[in-house]
Design brief:
Elements (H helix, E strand, L loop, with lengths): L6 H5 L4 H14 L16 E3 L11 H7 L3 E3 H5 L3 E7 L7 E2 L2 E2 H18 L3 E8 L2 E8 L2 H12 L14 H4 L7 E6 L7 H11 L3 E8 L1 H5 L7 E3 L6 E3 L8 H18 L2 E7 L5 H15 L1
Parallel strand pairs: 3-6, 3-8, 8-9, 9-12
Antiparallel strand pairs: 1-2, 4-5, 6-7, 10-11
Helix pairs in contact: 2-5, 5-6, 5-11
């Protein structure tokens, strides 16, 4: 396992695109080359260039022979749209070992977006915070990727999870099937996150959920604290005299139920710890992306 995938190492790199490239390069170096395939591996036919087509898929040898621009059709067909949905509600400010959930989320999303771009896919972004929704339509251009990284850097978590009234852009976007990568701490008060995912799944999208947890949060290690505070509601729970040794097993049971519930909707679920390297997430993303190509 490469230390280039360690979240602390990545957080020390202040340049987000460079950190994403570092993570993906380290990940790919440890994989067999055939596992990481770019677009257009199986050629089918040429077609004439149309304004708006990605210039990377131009066949320059055909241009040299015919003095006309042609696109390799198979390369366009194997590309897909991938949108990254970031939960940036206030609870994502939870921090352990110097790593906050929102920082882990932004570096994870940047790495996955870089890998998607490397494979010729269009990457989009949706940020849910302060009760509102910010969206960027999926595109393939390098300039668009620079804007996507910038928006990830600018995320300011706050408020509660975005209300359904703001979901219009998610439901009325491109009607083609997409891969949606949702990064969240899955803190919900009345099933609002699950309801959103079920609706998106019903629209035919493939969904990959990364559920972020801290190791102390997972084990209930509250040593040194007199109380804990809900980051979204402000409610405080006094810990003095409380010794719930069943906390870890209860949380595990809840997460198992959540996983089962999502899988029944064909929504892929993966739990990630803040202290965990990114290789597992990158591998899951790559496998899910390749499933959509078939």
């Amino acid at each position: 396992m490469s230390n280039l995938l360690d979240p602390k190492v990545l957080l020390a790199i202040k340049d987000l695109p460079l950190a994403a490239k570092t993570a993906v390069d380290g990940f790919m170096a440890g994989m067999h080359a055939s596992r990481v395939k770019g677009a257009g591996l199986e050629f089918s036919q040429y077609r004439s260039y149309q304004p708006g087509d990605d210039l990377r898929w131009l066949d320059w040898k055909m241009y040299a022979r015919s003095d006309r621009y042609y696109i390799r059709e198979s390369e366009m067909e194997t590309s897909i749209d991938i949108s990254f949905l970031i939960d940036a509600s206030n609870s994502m400010l939870h921090t352990e070992d110097g790593i906050s959930k929102i920082d882990y989320a932004r570096y994870l999303a940047a790495s996955l977006a870089y890998l998607a771009h490397l494979q010729g896919d269009a990457a989009g972004l949706a940020v849910l915070h302060h009760g509102r929704l910010f969206t960027m339509t999926a595109r393939r251009e390098a300039q668009h990727m620079a804007r996507l990284y910038y928006q990830l850097e600018q995320i300011q978590p706050g408020g509660t999870f975005t209300a359904p009234a703001q979901y219009r852009d998610l439901f009325s976007g491109p009607h083609n099937r997409q891969l949606l990568v949702f990064i969240t701490d899955y803190y919900e008060q009345s099933g609002e996150i699950t309801a959103l995912l079920q609706t998106l799944s019903a629209l035919g999208h493939e969904i990959l959920v990364f559920h972020l947890l801290g190791e102390k949060e997972r084990t209930g290690d509250f040593r040194g604290y007199d109380a804990v505070e809900d980051l979204e509601t402000g409610q405080r729970l006094e810990l003095t005299g409380i010794a719930d040794t069943d906390y870890p097993s209860k949380l595990e049971q809840y997460n198992d139920q959540l996983r089962t519930q999502l899988l029944q909707r064909r929504i892929y679920y993966r739990q990630l710890l803040l202290q965990e390297p990114l290789d597992a997430a990158l591998r899951d993303f790559l496998n899910q992306r390749n499933k959509m190509r078939k």
